[in-house]
Design a protein that fits this description.
The protein is mainly alpha-helical. The protein has one domain. It is built from ten helices and three strands, in the order H-H-H-E-E-E-H-H-H-H-H-H-H. Strands 1-3-2 form a three-stranded mixed beta sheet, sandwiched between helices. Strand 2 and strand 3 form a beta hairpin. The structure holds zinc ion (ZN). Zinc ion binds next to helix 5 and helix 8.
């Protein structure tokens, strides 16, 4: 009887998120990314503007080269950067270096190449700092029941379960601030001027309807602009 119960427990735990690895998180990200790219492709919205796509590739390539140099783990990743004319997502990076950038967003904010570099470097920073894995681990710490459930359910919950998302918001805030900081430093190491990178946050604050309002898991744009200016001044003073 006892043995029988044990066997059942083993079956129940198969595919569960007992202890998550970066490899599993990357496999999940790969699946979700592929699905979204297929869906954009079907609607002729994938890399649909060659000029914008080339602009993004030109700016992102040196940033990825720098990231691979600074975070050796990411040298083995299949980095991918796609673009779309649509504005459903501004820009994102999934685990393992899978990026998507929206032309509508970049054009709406009228980003210069330096400001586009800041946006891309912020996303790259999320990936190389393993922010997805850390978020899933935090979710399992906050709600231990996730350890016994399929990882795919947790993937869905961090984006759709509002109660869990609320609990994860403090970590999300920290991760955003860290991606701003490490992203700015990464793009600066590539050779961009730090004050010109920081201007991205000025445009963000200017475009925001409530620049002092803190979103769910994002620091207020005005606060991000202030932090970026301070960091830029520090980098300028330190020199390359
Ligand atoms: Zn972010």
């Amino acid at each position: 009887m006892r043995r029988y119960f044990f066997a059942l427990t083993l079956i129940a735990y198969a595919g569960a998120a007992l202890a998550l690895t970066q490899a599993e998180v990357m496999a999940g990200a790969e699946r979700m990314y592929r699905e979204q790219m297929r869906e954009l492709q079907a609607r002729h919205q994938l890399d649909a503007d060659p000029a914008f796509h080339q602009r993004v590739q030109r700016v992102v390539k040196p940033l990825i080269a720098q990231a691979v140099h600074d975070y050796p783990e990411s040298a083995g990743w299949q980095w991918e950067v796609h673009t779309t004319p649509e504005d459903d997502d501004n820009a994102y990076a999934m685990a393992g270096g899978k990026l998507l950038v929206s032309r509508a967003y970049v054009h709406k904010l009228q980003l210069t190449d330096a400001e586009l570099a800041m946006l891309l470097a912020h996303e790259i920073a999320h990936a190389v700092l393993r922010h997805n894995l850390l978020e899933y681990e935090e979710a399992m710490r906050l709600e231990p029941a996730w350890r016994g459930r399929p990882f795919a359910e947790l993937e869905d919950a961090v984006d759709n379960d509002s109660a869990l998302m609320r609990k994860l918001a403090p970590l999300g805030m920290q991760q955003e601030a860290e991606a701003d900081r490490e992203g700015l430093k990464l793009a600066w190491r590539v050779g961009w001027s730090a004050p010109m990178l920081a201007r991205y946050f000025h445009k963000l604050a200017r475009a925001s309807h409530a620049p002092n309002f803190e979103q769910f898991a994002h620091p207020a744009p005005s606060q991000r602009w202030k932090a970026a200016q301070e960091l830029a001044a520090m980098l300028e003073a330190a020199g390359r």
